Amino acid sequence: MTTEDMLVERFGVLLDLAQVAELLKRKSADSVRVALSGNTDLARQLLPAKVKIGRRILFKASVLAKILDNSHAPS
């Protein structure tokens, strides 16, 4: 089972800020929102996963899975 399969099974195809915060072990959705507003590595990695539907900010599980897989890859 791939990382993407596990994310989709647990959260669905699109994750909201609270779910991303849980996945990244952040304290709250606001901490993810603040991280996205800056020019950090995390913000640059999450930007391609970001989808805006109306006023809601969601993140694609497929892109998040790639981010997680790359962060645990041996250097």
UniProtKB/TrEMBL annotation:
Biological classification of the source: Bacteria, Pseudomonadati, Pseudomonadota, Betaproteobacteria, Burkholderiales
This protein's record includes keyword DNA-binding: yes
GO molecular function, one term: DNA binding
Superkingdom of the organism of origin: Bacteria
Keywords: DNA-binding
Listed name of the protein: DNA-binding protein
Annotated source species: Massilia terrae
